Amino acid sequence: MIRIGQLKMPVSHTPEELRREIIKALKIKENHLLSFRIARRSVDARKKPEVMFVYSIDAEVRDQKKVLTRVRSSNIQRLEQKGYCPPVHGEGKLSCRPVIVGTGPAGLLCGLLLARAGYCPILLERGERVEERQRKVEAFWHTGMLDTSSNVQFGEGGAGTFSDGKLNTAVKDATGRNRYVLESFVKAGAPEEILWLNKPHIGTDILRDVVKNIREEILSLGGEVRFQSRMTDLRAEQGQVKAIEINGESWMDCGVLVMAIGHSARDTFEMLAEKPLRMEAKAFAVGVRIQHPQPMIDLSQYGRPRGRELPAADYKLTRKLANGRGVYSFCMCPGGYVVDASSETGRTAVNGMSYHARDGKNANSAMVVTVSPADYGSGDALAGMRFQRHLEEAAYRAGEGRVPVQLLGDFCRGVPSRSLGEVEPAVRGRYALGDLKPCFPAELYESLREGITGCGRLIKGFDRGDALLAGVESRTSSPVKIPRNEECESSIAGLYPCGEGAGYAGGITSAAMDGLRVAESIIRLYAPWGGPR
Fold first, then answer.
1. What are the φ and ψ backbone dihedral angles of 406, each rounded to 5 degrees?
2. CA 191 to chain centre
């Protein structure tokens, strides 16, 4: 195969036009091109309004060696294909099956790899399977009645199930884990385009089916998935995990325990903090969700209405402030919705969500500022978690139990909003106009105000007075890190911290990749499960 890079085409091109451009780039006859596939496609909008697609193409040709000798270009290279290769299993004997706590991306992919390798894992999930969970979430958005075990944060698929379903990651990957994750998602029903889009996403609607199908494969390979099963206690002896308690009622023997609990399992963090387990407070970011009309973002980013060929435009913004802090966009959702992502009674948290079509009227993203132990105190590992709760309690008061929404202009003036402008809220959940300023310490409020308005220099209209803010965005990442060694074990032997909740990932793909990494460590150490001994 030959990899052709930086192949630019108008966004309105046809498949045949792409084929002709490949033939031209390789300087070959038409019948010498045997096949080709898209390896990557991105959007180049640097010369607005002339927007182009940029391709990387993998082509199979006759006389490949001659073609490579004749065509001298840094954009045309022989393709070295290297696939993901799981490790050879070890010889250690498992006394019982591996247990994975949490069925978010980290837990599911860890479980999937272990199941495919013959380890018959048991996955425990405090929430419900995705079908029941979806009904609970939609009922909460409609009525405000929160189920603290099955909501936007908890349940099969984790918090990512009710998100934009972004699958891009900045993680450097020489192992092939990223491709393995994407291919596993495609096998489970995701569109094949995620294998080649520069910024792939599934959308919450498709992701729900993908999660369910991964579960079904785990079950078909001898694994178990137990719902409404919350880990409530842990027993270790001589520095080795021995058993875990489920729902405060029964104990399960456990010698290999993967903790893929997600960033919102606060009761689990509190339980673990009482054990001889090393835990640390870590930095994270907090702020608000901001909504603009999607056509406004399209026009700014593309220099033209997007039409049918282009995807709903996204953005990535960063502003360095005079006080030394930075404000930046996070988890941008084109054509999406702000969602009530609360998981605790009396506390309000928001997130962003899109469907696969990204055809909603508004764009939204989190605009956040980083906080660290210097902001919330460094008394113990859970100080950041308590800070999150403090912000969420203030947001609950600001919206009187609903998502508090405020116009940007009013936020900057420090006055409550009483009416809307031209931007109409796109919110999943009940919302109320209010005042977000009291939700934040003074320095964070000033940072958000200055940072958001400063982004008007980067995207025309971003600082419009009727842009809508919703709060609070408090769960950008885990406030806790559980240190682990090179083999992914914690200070308690047999306990493997994993994914975003443990501080080792920041999104669906990176969490799933970390799940693979932990599974690899277990495979290298132990032989597959062969039943009771």
1. -145, 145
2. 18
442, 495: one domain = no
Tell me the pLDDT tens digit for each residue of 343-382.
999 999 999 999 999 999 999 999 999 999 989 987 799 9
CB 479 within 8 A of CB 345: no
Share of the chain residues as helix, strand and coil, in percent rounded to the nearest 5: 30, 25, 45
Share above pLDDT 70 across residues of the chain, in percent, rounded to a whole number: 99
Phi, psi of 223 (to 5 degrees): -80, 170
Question: Is this model's pTM higher than 0.90 or not?
Answer: yes
Residue 282 contacts residue 275 (beta carbons within 8 Å): no
Structural domain contains residue 466: yes
Show the domain range for 492: 99-278+482-525
For the stretch 475-506, pLDDT in tens is 999 999 999 999 999 999 999 999 999 999 99
Do residues 173 and 150 lie in contact, with contact meaning Cβ atoms separated by under 8 Å?
A: no
Closest CA to 284 of 496, 473, 485, 497: 473
Q: Which residues of 56-66 are buried (b: 16+ CB within 10 A; e: fewer)?
A: bbbbebeebee
* Rg of the Cα atoms in the chain: 24
What letter represents residue 453's amino acid?
T
Query: The tokens of 127 are what?
Result: 């929430």
Do strands 257-259 and 495-497 pair parallel, antiparallel, or not at all (unpaired)? parallel
- Do 304 and 439 lie in one domain? The reply is yes
Q: Are 253 and 241 in contact (CB under 8 A)?
A: no
Cα–Cα distance measured from residue 518 to residue 494, given in angstroms and rounded to the nearest whole number: 11
Q: What's the sign of the alpha-carbon dihedral 179, 182, 186, 192? A: negative
| 8 A C-beta contact, residue 468 and residue 290 | yes
Helix (H) or strand (E) holding 81: none
Token pair for 291 = 């909504």
Tell me which residue has tokens 């884990």: 177
Q: How far apart are alpha carbons 519 and 112 in whole angstroms? A: 9
pLDDT at site 532: 53
In a domain, 89, yes or no: no
pLDDT score at 89 = 96
Residues 280 and 380: beta-carbon distance below 8 Å: no
| Total number of domains constituting the chain | 3
- Give the 3-state secondary structure of residue 254: coil
Identify which of 292, 281, 382, 289 has the alpha carbon closest to the alpha carbon of residue 341. Answer: 289
Strand (E) positions, 315-440?
A: 318-320, 326-333, 337-340, 350-353, 362-371, 403-407, 427-428, 431-433
The reply to whether 23 and 110 lie within a common domain is no
Distance, in Å, from the CA atom of 232 to the CA atom of 116, rounded to the nearest integer, reads 29
Are residue 257 and residue 360 in the same domain, yes or no?
no
Output the CA–CA distances (angstroms, integers) from residue 449 to 139, 167, 408, 444, 468, in the order listed: 34, 30, 8, 9, 13
- Report the length, in residues, of the chain: 533
Task: Quick: pLDDT tens for 32-57.
Answer: 999 999 999 999 999 999 999 999 99
